[in-house]
């Protein structure tokens, strides 16, 4: 009996362990990298901020902070400590080992402290040991480096989507779903131009919400195996081209003059079908999907849109002003403290002379005001420092001017650093006094100017105006291959990241458009010479050209090309449009669709496009990448360039005008002196004699 009992208990234990392991295996894992780049913090007491999000359909079972860091190697009688806080609540402290090289630390985050959007703050402090006491020491050797490899990992169960558009869209556009390649947009095997345009609207609408530079949603033909395998699918087609299994979901009568969106759930496959009787209403329906606000407000499984349905995205007109914080930020304790704010600028604009940061501050009155100051950095570049003053502690307004030549990009960081020294040094720097607060009225004013260069350093901004597509005409292959779909997805993944509105126009063409269309549009030409006749017509305009028989690329002044090697490269070339010198023309081509795809991999993410500052990119099948500039003058619009030059050099022009007036007055004064003393008239009298 005893043996039987032992056997039963053993079996029960094994079953419990197996069940626990099965549940653990069912958990999904997603690692969210921090947006911050590697940064070094110096000072006796340092702090850094970063942000991460928890997606609403996760049932989180465990969250871990994975820190990758390095601290200064100091004398044996000094120790370091690091404290971690989430949403203002400190929950973990530790002492890192004093050793060379990068260290790692995994810390469990209390689940009850995690919200949807989270602020993670990391504090560091260096202490000197003097006998039994510890006193803080100010030295440049006190530093803490946080590496970009730091991240937060979530272990979670996935909540299945509810049967409504809001829930489906949240899952479809979720960072984990896209990272795992589980979201796809499906179109007919050989889609019409209108269907491709509709799919592109949907793609760019989702892309603008993606926070990473490593994952994307793809447009694929509906017979691709990845479409069948994907749990989350958006099927886009006119009603006549819909797969038979979906046609019965719609009534032709209900689709008259309308576009329809309908969910179909079956066997862990979640599908949104978007269809209409014609291209115009199909594109109207996909513009609805491209509007995040409308999709996340729709709590039903079916939606019909008509020509009168307002599908445009709401947007605030950019007036150059950006609020740094909506709630205000308070930094406590002596030593060095930092707060970083991220600012988005319309992609087609850049910094011009006159931009400035205006800080509204409050701070403690018990500071040593001889040594306490605030410093502002733009993308880690110091733009100025001010000493804090006792008489302004309750309400201090400070203005920092940005240099006119400071390149800030479409997204940049404003870092505000405080060095707070109390009147008397205490044993610990973690006291709640002194303190400094950044008020919600703090702003950055960016005096922006439109970018005006025809280079990849300005791509895709030159194809975007007022935050949306600027009359894009896409000439695509007559017969689309899988590589062509991949290349198209790459192109519009990047364009979508830069667009903030769904009101622009994209038109696809299988043949060369008429002259009026070419003159009024920015043009993208995609494919091989065999697939796309327009590439043959443009061959003489290309920087990298094909031979007369269009069998390989030929050499030019930048690169010698062996004939067989010329069959294995793809190029992306940014040209001045021969149809309108104020418009751009992008040609992505190669001998095979695979080569075209390889070229497109250099213009798919922000992290790749920033590597290219010229007007031509060459990629071979061994993944060797070359970047060239052929244009001597990259200005797109000379009239705009002249206006920008004047705006950028306003001060210099004012000085020159003042100097010219001074010289004119000086010459006039000399003339009057000579005239008054009869020196000029005397000369004339001598001539008359």
Automatic annotation (TrEMBL):
<dbReference type="Pfam" id="PF03170">
    <property type="entry name" value="BcsB"/>
</dbReference>
<keyword id="KW-1003">Cell membrane</keyword>
<protein>
    <submittedName>
        <fullName>Flagellar protein FliS</fullName>
    </submittedName>
</protein>
<keyword id="KW-0966">Cell projection</keyword>
<dbReference type="GO" id="GO:0005886">
    <property type="term" value="C:plasma membrane"/>
</dbReference>
<keyword id="KW-0969">Cilium</keyword>
<feature type="transmembrane region" description="Helical">
    <location>
        <begin position="652"/>
        <end position="675"/>
    </location>
</feature>
<dbReference type="GO" id="GO:0006011">
    <property type="term" value="P:UDP-alpha-D-glucose metabolic process"/>
</dbReference>
<keyword id="KW-0282">Flagellum</keyword>
<feature type="signal peptide">
    <location>
        <begin position="1"/>
        <end position="24"/>
    </location>
</feature>
<keyword id="KW-0812">Transmembrane</keyword>
<keyword id="KW-0472">Membrane</keyword>
<keyword id="KW-0732">Signal</keyword>
<keyword id="KW-1133">Transmembrane helix</keyword>
<dbReference type="InterPro" id="IPR018513">
    <property type="entry name" value="Cell_synthase_bac"/>
</dbReference>
């Amino acid at each position: 009996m005893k043996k039987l009992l032992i056997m039963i208990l053993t079996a029960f234990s094994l079953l419990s362990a197996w069940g626990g392991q099965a549940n653990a295996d069912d958990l999904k894992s997603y690692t969210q990298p921090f947006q911050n780049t590697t940064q070094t913090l110096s000072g006796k007491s340092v702090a850094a901020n970063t942000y991460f999000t928890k997606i609403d359909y996760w049932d989180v079972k465990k969250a871990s902070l994975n820190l990758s860091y390095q601290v200064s190697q100091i004398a044996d009688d000094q120790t370091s400590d690091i404290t971690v806080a989430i949403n203002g609540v400190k929950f973990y402290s530790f002492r890192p080992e004093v050793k060379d090289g990068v260290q790692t630390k995994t810390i469990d985050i209390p689940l009850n402290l995690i919200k949807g959007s989270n602020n993670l703050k990391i504090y560091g402090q260096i202490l000197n040991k003097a006998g039994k006491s510890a006193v803080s020491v100010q030295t440049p050797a006190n530093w803490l480096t946080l590496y970009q490899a730091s991240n937060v990992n979530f272990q979670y169960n996935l909540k299945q989507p509810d049967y409504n558009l809001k829930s489906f869209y949240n899952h479809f556009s979720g960072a984990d779903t896209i990272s795992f390649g589980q979201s796809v947009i499906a179109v007919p095997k050989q889609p019409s131009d209108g269907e491709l345009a509709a799919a592109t609207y949907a793609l760019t609408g989702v892309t603008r919400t993606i926070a990473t530079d490593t994952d994307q949603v793809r447009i694929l033909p509906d017979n691709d195996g990845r479409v069948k395998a994907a749990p989350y699918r958006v099927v886009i087609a006119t009603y006549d081209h819909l797969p038979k299994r979906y046609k019965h979901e719609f009534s032709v009568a209900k689709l008259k003059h309308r576009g329809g969106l309908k969910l179909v759930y079956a066997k862990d496959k979640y599908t949104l079908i978007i269809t209409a009787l014609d291209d115009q209403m199909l594109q109207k329906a996909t513009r609805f999907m491209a509007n995040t606000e409308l999709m996340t407000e729709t709590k039903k499984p079916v939606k019909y849109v008509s020509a009168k349905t307002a599908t445009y995205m709401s947007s605030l007109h950019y007036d150059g002003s950006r609020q740094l914080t909506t709630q205000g930020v308070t930094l406590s304790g002596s030593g060095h403290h930092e707060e970083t704010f991220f600012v988005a600028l319309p992609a087609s604009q850049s910094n011009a002379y006159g931009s400035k940061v205006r800080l509204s501050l409050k701070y403690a009155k018990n500071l040593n005001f001889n040594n306490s100051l605030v410093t502002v950095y733009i993308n880690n570049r110091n733009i100025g420092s001010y000493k804090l003053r006792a008489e302004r502690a309750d309400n201090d307004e400070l203005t920092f001017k940005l240099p006119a030549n400071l390149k800030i990009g479409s997204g940049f960081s404003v870092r505000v650093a405080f060095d707070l020294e109390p009147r008397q040094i205490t044993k610990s720097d973690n006291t709640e006094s002194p303190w400094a607060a950044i008020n919600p009225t703090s702003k950055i004013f960016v005096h922006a100017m439109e970018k005006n260069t025809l280079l990849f350093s300005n791509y895709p901004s030159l194809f975007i105006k007022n935050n949306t597509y600027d009359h894009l005409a896409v000439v695509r292959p007559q017969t689309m291959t899988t590589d062509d779909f991949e290349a198209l997805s790459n192109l519009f993944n990047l364009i979508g990241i830069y667009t903030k509105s769904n009101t622009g126009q994209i038109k696809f063409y299988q043949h060369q458009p008429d002259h009026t269309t070419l003159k009024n549009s920015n043009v993208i030409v995609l494919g091989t010479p065999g697939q796309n006749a327009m590439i043959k017509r443009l061959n003489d305009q290309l920087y990298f050209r094909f031979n007369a028989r269009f069998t390989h690329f030929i050499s030019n002044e930048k690169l010698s090309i062996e004939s067989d090697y010329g069959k294995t490269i793809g190029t992306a070339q940014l040209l001045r449009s021969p149809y309108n010198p104020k418009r751009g023309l992008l040609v992505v081509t190669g001998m095979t669709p695979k080569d075209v795809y390889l070229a497109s991999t250099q213009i798919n993410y922000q992290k790749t496009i920033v590597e290219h500052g010229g007007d031509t990119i060459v990629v071979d099948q061994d993944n060797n990448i070359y970047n060239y500039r052929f244009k001597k003058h990259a200005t797109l619009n000379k009239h705009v360039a002249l206006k920008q030059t004047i705006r950028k050099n306003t001060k210099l022009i004012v000085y020159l005008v003042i100097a010219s007036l001074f010289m004119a007055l000086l010459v006039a004064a000399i003339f009057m002196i000579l005239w008054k003393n009869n020196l000029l008239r005397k000369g004339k009298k001598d001539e008359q004699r």
